[in-house]
Amino acid sequence: MASLFSFRQTYRYLQRQAHEQPVIFYSVVIGLIGPLMVITVPPIRKSLGYKTPEPIPTSYPIPNRPRREVHGYEDE
């Protein structure tokens, strides 16, 4: 019975905070939803058929040939 009374007090406190300080209340709610989404969203995306794209290249591919010497840009 004590746990039910404690739940009621917690619910009433949260309800009061939602009315008196809604910005803080909903900031906390959104902050608590974030870690849950880290756990739940990837399996849902996978079940819907989403495939991760290939990683973006971070460098330009070097051609497989000998380098030509550059002419015409001398400082002299």
Automatic annotation (TrEMBL):
Q: What are the TM regions of this chain, as residue ranges?
A: 23-41
User: Where is composition skewed (Basic and acidic residues) in this entry?
Assistant: 66-76
Source domain of life = Eukaryota
Compositional bias per record (Pro residues), positions renumbered to this chain: 54-64
Question: What are the UniProt keywords, alphabetically?
Answer: Membrane, Transmembrane, Transmembrane helix
Q: Which intervals of the chain are annotated as region Disordered?
A: 53-76
Per its UniProt record, what InterPro entries does this chain match? Nuo9.5
Name recorded for this polypeptide:
NADH-ubiquinone oxidoreductase 9.5 kDa subunit
According to its UniProt entry, this protein's organism is Trametes coccinea (strain BRFM310)
- UniProt lineage: Eukaryota, Fungi, Dikarya, Basidiomycota, Agaricomycotina
